């Protein structure tokens, strides 16, 4: 395939418009089918028994009473999901997380599951399963867990990445380091240095739709799985591996998805549902409760971060250093490593060093959450940057502009940047009316920058042209944020037809080749590239068919604005042929017309954003109100600007919740105290102002239309922007996220005491 | 599980009194159904009281108001007379849950759910509201604050049902108000709350007062000492500061997921000041 992905600078007809999304009507009328909306004749209800203990050895599980209960068709434990991972440590962790094997490692860890004829019977059966636990000491705090004296979660883990191989096991699974130059020397040249420590609490992605699936294992060894997921091909691979199946024998169909944000990139319930179905010989539907979603799925890391930044009087940063500790749950991860890579990515630095430590704790296995690990690092760094600007006496925007990375800058994590948007977003913020709006009493303004890598990956797409001239587009990338609308626009653009003529669907795993999941802000970037490629392949065939209809050489046929045109003077009397006219005749000219594309979308292009936020703080109660919020972000090219704005607003809204109120609260017993939306406080509508957006378009040179991923960067700056705003409003630097009213009031009181 | 929908108080009381096993009374169901769905309870008998004659009405009597046990909180907000007489009680009832929940939930249910953080209870206690209790032994009227005895526990005996909540006719120059602290703007549960009910003399001096605090002890607190601070004052700055101090001191809060002891004490004082100021203005004080 000779597809040229380079940016071409073309003028657009469809791309950049804002039509209604194809999945919209079904979603607002309740017809759309989400994970729990699939049903099969004879299906059973699956339910999972979970450990009430933070850390315990499983001495014995007796399922005999549950098995004897009328209506129970299968009971499974780890014995029904034997270890077939063959030395793949990461997959073994996934398996153990799906069903605890020797130890329960957190409150909510699955230890057994049942399938029964109805929910009541299944619930009763769970009560009849007898689990004998031997309680072990637990640790849930990231700093406590990193200490030598902490209870060990896995005594087979020795810290990786140290110069000398450690002799004792540790909860710190890995050390990673990034940077260049000599920070020690750099700090020597600084006139001002800010050094601070920060903490962020653990948050959940908070998707409204719980995990849900229906598994149907046939006696011939094949199986079907209907599931809400961000990546059905990945779920297929993982489930097949864990159940000892060939991937081709498992067909996975993705449902509509009620939010994922990274949390639906990992399997939890699906292998369990398949194992139950295999044992019961009937379809099994497994839907998590909200309590289970909080206790056992998600969440992101809790962190503890030390930052040190030095600058000269003229505002030039001379050195920057950070040590980042991220919780991984009870299994090894690379979350601190990503934090260490992103921490200083916005800046042009001669001397920079970041060190990340991955820390095991007795909490659920950390999962990706929208630009995973970057928001916490940005909170720490951007808070320190703000403080440093203040110390020097520079405007925080000017200070950042002075130190912003540019094309050609060597990034703090290694690569040299191409054309990037950090400078332009800062310039846009500097001239934005929001920055000049007056503030009232107890109100403060903050701003902050954010970075995210973005990803492309494997993509497979089919474009079929019907005999009526309509186009159906089958993609393997799950539509999480409106990509069916965006991809339809791209197909319409490329073919030169109306958006309404295109219908996009997400095909199942048996209909297309492997496709990476919707993560890394790759959905529209990668699948639009594949759609362009597929459309161009279809155009080639359309031209051939037109040439056949005209009986002229195909080289004399060009494709313009949805029509085949015979070029050259000798064909001057031939009228143009529309896509529809060619399609109608396709049965006589060689059969159906289609374009296919399979590619690895490289060159996703990094993404930057700068946010501005105004906050009012009640100094008597610590209550906060977000008064105004503005997002400025580079989209490369906004294919469907409404959904780009939606991504900007959504990231900001989640960031606001994280910054102000959301947190996992554990009791001394290691149990999660707030596994529900009442006490895990995501923002409600009335908590948020209208979030203003400004889309910048700095084309990505590695995409034909200049598209960059937009989904994740928007959650990176909010924690920092809000912390800077609250700090300015309250007159005290906030260093612990979330800035809940008790924390803000305590900080204000401490400051009052101190200044007495 | 058995569900019944009796048409009379006698029948309802009889069914409850005669039941073996666990039973629950269903009015709005905004607590009961949530707990059943969450798998926390599975009552053997559910007695739906919504069909009982008169229980879904607000009646104006010579003594004041009688609010039937099945009257949804949203309906309280639609009664102009009640809103005029007891704006604090109505604003408290209209803070429970969400708009949708308010279409179902009742102040009697809120009282009998016996949560220390119940929104309508501090306002009812400050208002001096009484509950009409009907049971196998007959009918009795008790102050609302004697109904909850601890988190999730009430003083009601087996077979007893609250039929109505009574609020007195208003004396001239009276006002009440309720405020709660929540980290969000709505759909939340009080971290601290305060209700104040005042009557002024013709010079604008507080003649009588009741101050209640919520979510700062196992049950809603009626703070007599705080009332004494207000009585005889025109709510000057020094009085309000004393009020805050007394209220903070009266709290017996706990540290939990919703707030710390320190936070609850401070904010109880702050809310008491703010809510007293509102009640004073509503009573016509300047």
TrEMBL record, chain A:
Gene3D superfamilies: Aldehyde oxidase/xanthine dehydrogenase, a/b hammerhead (3.90.1170.50), Aldehyde oxidase/xanthine dehydrogenase, molybdopterin binding domain (3.30.365.10). GO terms for molecular function: iron ion binding; oxidoreductase activity. It comes from the Bacteria. Pfam families: Ald_Xan_dh_C, MoCoBD_1, MoCoBD_2. Coiled coil: none annotated. Residues 29-137 form the Aldehyde oxidase/xanthine dehydrogenase a/b hammerhead domain. Keywords: Molybdenum, Oxidoreductase. PANTHER family: ALDEHYDE OXIDASE 1-RELATED, XANTHINE DEHYDROGENASE. This is Xanthine dehydrogenase molybdenum binding subunit apoprotein. It comes from Rhizobium loti. The lineage of its organism: Bacteria, Pseudomonadati, Pseudomonadota, Alphaproteobacteria, Hyphomicrobiales.
Automatic annotation (TrEMBL), chain B:
One of its GO terms (molecular function) is oxidoreductase activity. The keyword Oxidoreductase applies. The keyword Oxidoreductase applies. It holds the Pfam family FAD_binding_5. Keywords: FAD, Flavoprotein, Oxidoreductase. InterPro entries: CO_DH_flav_C, CO_DH_flav_C_dom_sf, Diverse_Substr_Oxidored, FAD-bd_PCMH, FAD-bd_PCMH-like_sf, FAD-bd_PCMH_sub1, FAD-bd_PCMH_sub2, Mopterin_DH_FAD-bd. Transmembrane segments: none annotated. SMART domains: CO_deh_flav_C (SM01092). Residues 1-172 form the FAD-binding PCMH-type domain. This is Carbon-monoxide dehydrogenase medium subunit. It comes from Rhizobium loti (Mesorhizobium loti).
